[in-house]
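TODO from last week: model Tripartite tricarboxylate transporter TctB family protein.
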Amino acid sequence: MKLNDAVLGALFIALGAAVLFGVQGFPKIPGQPVGPALFPGLIATGLCVAGAVLLVQGWRGRRNGERWLAWEPWVQSPRHVAALAVLLGSVLLYIFAAGKVGFLPLAVLILSALFMTLRVPPGRAVLIAVIAALVVHFAFYKLLRVPLPWGVLTPYAW
């Protein structure tokens, strides 16, 4: 799917304007010429400028016959649509079940499903998923000290 640049430009302008509106409420630091609103404001201004450029380019493209929305050829492929569905379903599954099931079981399940969708043989997919889930868990839990949910594995937490 390809959106016309004018649509993306309008979205960027709206996002930049919302950020500019939001940073107006940031507290001022007494005695300082700049405050916490400076960098978000600069980024929002950049978003608005980039959005305006995209809006103009997209509008010019409309004159040349570009459509507002164009589907890519992969949308016709059931395999690719299934991969997208598995990916989106995995994200939703993790959001709603991670607290109860835990990171490790869900990561193995999700990665296995994604690998099998990409036509990795099932045995190899599960093996790689287990190793990848353990590596990611070690990196986040031990090295970065990010508390990942244990879920059903809470009695075995290390």
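Done. The two ends are 44 Å apart (CA to CA).
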